[in-house]
């Protein structure tokens, strides 16, 4: 009587090794994909409040400038200051102090923080002669907001617009 091995329906060692190798590669790609999506989410979480605050400040500047009657731009101590008179006769002023843009009114008297975290700001406009009534033209506003991401990277987001003065 001859002994014959019993046939089994299992996997060979080579099949098992190949399966484990393929699954490891697929799992590695999956982990990398999930990590990238999670990092994008964290970046969005860090940037969204900063961009919203910057856009709100930009909208406030635009709204106030559209009612301007006389504009002046000065640079006392190296900081840009935009001063103008609105329809109500109040003198409004926007200036940068460090990483903060301040807003003040001759009616309110106290500087109010318009936006913080400003890396750089510039205000330019076509000059006008307030006495002759030549309309002011265009005010260009640019500022860059700076944020530190959870990864430690520092990101700068530029915000810019042009305001056409109607008066």
Provide key terms for this protein.
8 strands; 167 residues; 32% helix; rod-shaped; three-stranded antiparallel beta sheet
- Structural class comes to alpha+beta
The N- to C-terminal Cα distance equals: 113 Å
What percent of residues are in strands? 25-35%
**Order of the strands making up the biggest sheet:** 1-2-3-4-5
Oligomer kind: single chain
Number of helices: 1
Using only C-alpha atoms, the radius of gyration works out to 31 Å
Overall geometric form: rod-shaped
**What is the string of SSEs from the N terminus onward?**
HEEEEEEEE
Total number of strands: 8
Low-confidence stretches: 131-135
Main beta sheet: 5 strands, antiparallel
Give the mean pLDDT. 78
Short recap of the structure:
The chain is of the alpha+beta class and 167 residues long.
Describe this structure in words.
The chain starts with 12 loop residues before the first helix and ends with a strand. The protein has one helix spanning 13-65, and strands at residues 70-74, 81-85, 91-97, 100-105, 112-116, 118-125, 138-148, 154-164. A hairpin with a 2-residue loop joins strand 3 and strand 4. Residues 131-135 have low confidence and may be disordered. The protein has 1 helix and 8 strands, in the order αββββββββ. Strands 1-2-3-4-5 form a 5-stranded antiparallel sheet, with helices on one face. Strands 6-7-8 form a 3-stranded antiparallel sheet, with helices on one face. By secondary structure, it is an alpha+beta fold. The protein is 32% helix and 35% strand.
């Amino acid at each position: 009587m001859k002994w014959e091995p019993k046939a089994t329906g299992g996997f060979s060692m080579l099949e098992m090794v190949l399966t484990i190798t393929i699954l490891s590669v697929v799992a590695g790609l999956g982990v990398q994909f999930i990590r990238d999506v999670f990092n994008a989410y964290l970046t969005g979480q860090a940037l969204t409040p900063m961009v919203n605050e910057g856009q709100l400040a930009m909208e406030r500047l635009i709204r106030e400038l559209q009612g301007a009657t006389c504009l002046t731009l000065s640079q006392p101590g190296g900081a840009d200051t935009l001063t103008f008179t609105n329809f109500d006769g109040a003198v409004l002023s926007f200036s940068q102090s460090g990483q903060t843009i301040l807003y003040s009114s001759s009616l309110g008297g106290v500087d109010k923080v318009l936006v913080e975290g400003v890396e750089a700001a510039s205000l330019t406009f076509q000059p006008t002669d307030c006495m002759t009534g030549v309309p002011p033209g265009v005010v260009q506003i640019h500022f860059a907001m700076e944020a530190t991401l959870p990864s430690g990277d520092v990101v700068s987001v530029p915000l810019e617009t042009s305001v056409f003065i109607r008066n």
